[in-house]
Design brief:
alpha/beta, Rossmann fold, four-stranded parallel β-sheet, 6 strands, globular
């Protein structure tokens, strides 16, 4: 990997996926290679919630990776993204068909951001190398009722918002054949949302890219329409 990175001026480092322990190993390998290759600047894709007391299973991975960037004295910019709107549409599509948006969000709010907006932020950071923390969020933070209302705009049904318990949500996912690790990942993410750890709304996307963030209603409409074809 160090040979592959030799001569690289700016490395845009998209965080790994899969189980948290494996993802952290991947990150250690990438940063060690970046040091050996003397990469000039790293733009790292992180997440909004990486506090030590976070319930989200991926928070420690990103927190440790940001620490390693500092400790290895790698010049870097961190883009901390909120939850992807495209990722969230899986539940919206289902709710548009069933008439029920049942999620363990409690009173939590989430500032859903599009993948495209995050990508544009990464590109701008690679060009500018600001050496700062950028918080890439959507333009609004939604609660469960608002998400149900958005879904209903593109559904033939009234859509009811129902807050369910995490245990019920976990059981539902397991019955659908979701692997246990991802059940844990999804449930811990919603626990973080319930604790308002993904509610922040910033103007960083517009400041960096010159464009307002894509609204979640646009993402929801596209996903629902696509699911019908």
């Amino acid at each position: 990997m160090a040979a592959a990175l030799t001569g690289v001026g700016t490395l845009v480092f998209i965080s790994s996926d899969g189980e948290a322990a494996s993802a952290l190993v991947h990150h250690i390998n990438v940063l060690d290679a970046a040091v050996r290759a003397e990469v000039e600047h790293v733009v790292y894709l992180s997440i909004l919630d990486l506090e030590p007391d976070s319930p989200f299973c991926f928070a420690p991975v990103h927190r440790e990776t940001e620490r390693m960037l500092r400790d290895r004295h790698l010049p870097h910019t961190v883009v901390r993204a909120s939850v992807y709107g495209e990722f969230f549409t899986q539940w919206v599509v289902e709710a548009a068909s069933s008439g029920s948006l049942a999620l363990p969000m409690g009173d939590g709010r989430v500032s859903l951001v599009s993948r495209g907006d995050v990508a544009r932020c990464l590109v701008e950071c690679a060009i500018r190398r600001p050496g700062a923390v950028v918080k890439a969020t959507g333009g609004h933070s939604f609660d469960l009722a608002e998400l149900a209302d958005i879904t209903a705009r593109f559904s033939p049904h009234l859509v009811k918002a129902t807050n369910i318990e995490p245990t019920e949500f976990s059981s539902l996912l397991l019955r659908r054949g979701v692997a246990p690790w991802w059940v844990y990942a999804f449930t811990s993410m919603f626990e973080s949302v319930r604790e308002q750890r993904f509610e922040a709304v910033t103007g960083d996307v517009a400041t960096l890219t010159g464009l307002a963030p894509v609204g979640f209603s646009t993402l929801a409409e596209t996903a629902i329409q696509t699911s019908r074809h």
